[in-house]
Amino acid sequence: MTITTLDTPTAKPLLDWYDRHHRELPWRVSPGMAARGVKADPYRVWLSEVMLQQTTVQAVKPYFERFLQRWPEVTDLAAAENDAVMAAWAGLGYYARARNLKKCAEAVANEHGGIFPDTEEGLKSLPGIGDYTAAAVAAIAFNRQAAVMDGNVERVISRLYAIPTPLPAAKPAMKEKVALLTPETRPGDFAQAMMDLGATICTPKRPACSLCPFRGACEALKSSDPELFPVKAAKKEKPVRYGAAFIAVTGDGEILLRRRIDSGLLGGMTEVPTTAWTARIDGETSAAAAPFDAAWQASGTVIHVFTHFELRLSIWRAAIAAKVAMDDGPNDGWWEPVTNLEAQALPTIMKKAIAAAIPLAFKTSKG
């Protein structure tokens, strides 16, 4: 098949390119599969799109496959225990996505008979599904002519039309261009082709313009440097917040854990005791803020970068002879064997804190 390019953008050269160069992804129905009559599974499309937000394809693949092994249908996910879902999600970040994932699965199972709505508006009525996810699922799973725009598509569109307006102000204009380009036939393939093009050809640095199916129509390539697009507003420097984390370990190899409240940053996840830091305020950093009296020893500092701030935690470790009695309830703490840490819903920052105090903690964990 010959890939043609035009002076004005159309979907055809991109779809021709996609037929030959699409990525093979575990949630995707490829053009060849579609030709054999394979239909996209809305559950797989939705699950992958939620996981892929703010996360790379390579990072998502193992999580996606593990989720499908444990919960092969949306009704299975709806019936799962919240803690099991949060533990399976641990490490993917942006944990509100996991909470909304569970709520959405429950809504589909209980209010829609286990069947996803097949329109953008219907999908947006579900918990946690916004404009982007609704458009992506509508196009890819149901072949609706929906304008799908993620970061990769933004980059392609900004270069194709040399859009001078900085992000995020340029998004509405970009969305209009995507809507005009999206064809009535194969809109799902078009959406995935745009994503693939941005991921593999129209990359942030050193785009392979000579291989691009849009090269004859790209305004940035004709008149400027494609790497200048998309234009971005100057970044604000992220504030730095401080706090402390306390890793208490018994002689039997058990560590004190607790569960964060369901709302807010890292809501519902498991943590070691920490001080009251937030995105806006610092927490205490000294051993004086420890959950109980012990011979706390400094174990360094760990740094973790969230979307809107950087967190620096002072790590304190205490080796104690026996478990200290804690109040009843998961929010007040429990003692967990170090060998079982991989099974807990520990976000990355908490794994860093534990590893700073117990370097081999996750190498000896059973998983």
What does this 3D model show about the protein?
- This protein has 367 residues and is an alpha+beta fold.
- 38% of the residues lie in helices and 12% in strands.
- It contains 14 helices and 6 strands.
- The strands form 2 sheets. The chain has a 3-stranded mixed beta sheet with strand order 1-5-4, covered by helices on one side. It has a 3-stranded antiparallel beta sheet with strand order 3-2-6, with no helix packed on it.
- Helix 1 (11-21) packs across helix 12, helix 3 packs antiparallel against helix 9 and helix 10 (151-160) packs across helix 11 (171-181).
- Mean pLDDT is 93; it is low at 1-5.
**Widest sheet, order of strands:** 1-5-4
Task: List the helices and strands in order.
Answer: HHHHHHHHHHHHHEEEEEEH
- In round numbers, the mean pLDDT is 93
Q: Low-confidence spans: pLDDT under 50, at least 5 residues?
A: 1-5
Helix content: 25-40%
N- and C-termini, Cα separation: 48 Å
Strand content: 5-15%
Sum up the overall morphology in one term.
globular
Total helical segments: 14
Largest beta-sheet characterization = 3 strands, mixed
Number of strands: 6
| Structural class determined from secondary elements | alpha+beta
Radius of gyration: 24 Å
Produce the secondary structure layout.
Blueprint: H1 11-21, H2 31-35, H3 42-52, H4 57-70, H5 74-79, H6 82-89, H7 96-111, H8 120-124, H9 131-142, H10 151-160, H11 171-181, H12 187-200, H13 219-223, E1 240-250, E2 254-259, E3 270-271, E4 297-305, E5 310-320, E6 334-337, H14 348-357
Helix pairs in contact: 1-12, 3-4, 3-9, 9-12, 10-11, 10-12
